[in-house]
Amino acid sequence: MSTFVNYFFFAPLFATFFGFLGWMVPTILSRGAVPRRRVGVYTLFCTGYAVIAVLSLFLLVLGTQTSTKTVEPDGQVHFVTGARSHEVVPLLGTVISFAVVWLVRREWLRRRGGR
Length: 115
Hints:
mainly alpha, 64% helix
């Protein structure tokens, strides 16, 4: 449950960060070859959420594998790996967080008479 809450609350922050990087890195690397385009905050959110969703799918398909360090009496150190954990919780937290952001934006625009 804590993984879901972490993805739910921190996804907008990371989406803004990854969205900013997703638009700035190609622009910097192309040295102005990309035509100028106005990018809004919502576009940054969508780009960032796409990056987070791909990473969450990676965790779902490949899973995560943890290892524990064991020290034997003679001083040798070994790392023992456990089974892979395939979790859908990060993907659910990301999708529900994006749905909340989308609903808040939609209500905001409706009240302000926007698009």
